[in-house]
Design brief:
Blueprint: H1 3-22, E1 27-32, E2 37-42, E3 48-52, H2 57-71, H3 78-95, H4 104-107, H5 115-124, H6 135-144, H7 152-162, H8 168-181
Antiparallel strand pairs: 1-2, 2-3
Helix pairs in contact: 1-5, 2-3, 6-8
Length: 206
């Protein structure tokens, strides 16, 4: 594979990371065949969507909003997501040379992209030690006393301050998984918690 081919594949993978986050999927894969390439996206509700030739901004924009809406109609808020993805793809083509920006500030100018999405893309696609704060991270940070805050931005600032630099790159993944499977919203499984002795939560379960 030539340097040019490697660079193009890297751009496609970064685009897929952005798509995965915006679609709130649990997995996204690039399938390549001689005739074509397409992405396969799996969602928490079990829905699976295949979108042919949608691994670059040009190809995604070329699908058009109606076609993309039809392809992702099994997921929540599919109309607004399709609208944002088409607008985002066109903006990437027109203003960013078909490349996903490496700046949080610029990422947040893209349709449908907020701070959390930008942080995930910077972390996963570009390897930056950002910490994205979703509902799971927000709950774990506040409940345990690790990084209490009234807003996601405040929690993010505290996490960046207190999480050692060598752990920042994977910190939000670990916190998300802990919040999703152990420190769950209604009844946390404190008995299975590895940091039970350090946690400041008063109403610990058995």
């Amino acid at each position: 594979m030539s340097v040019s081919e490697k660079e193009q594949k890297k751009k496609r993978i970064i685009m897929m990371v952005l798509l995965a986050v915006l679609l709130m999927s649990v997995s996204i894969f690039l399938v390549e065949r001689k005739e074509s390439s397409y992405i396969v996206v799996t969602f928490p509700n079990g829905a699976v969507v295949e979108a042919e030739v949608a691994d670059t901004p040009e190809k995604l924009a070329g699908l058009g909003e109606a076609a993309l809406t039809e392809k992702i109609k099994t997921i929540g808020l599919y109309r607004s997501k399709a609208r944002n993805l088409i607008a985002l793809s066109r903006k990437l083509v027109d203003e960013h040379g078909s490349k996903v920006p490496e700046s949080r500030e610029v990422l947040e100018t893209l349709p449908g992209v907020g701070r959390k999405t930008a942080n995930v893309v910077l972390n996963v696609a570009f390897g930056e030690p950002t910490i994205a704060v979703d509902t799971h991270v927000f709950r774990v940070a506040n409940r345990t006393g690790l990084a209490p805050g009234k807003t996601p931005e405040e929690v993010e600032r505290r996490l960046l301050k207190f999480v050692p630099e060598e752990f920042r790159h994977h910190a939000h993944h670990w916190l998300i998984l802990h919040g999703r499977y152990v420190c769950v919203a209604r009844t946390p499984n404190c008995g299975a918690c590895a940091i039970r002795d350090l946690c400041e939560y008063r109403d610990k379960s058995a």
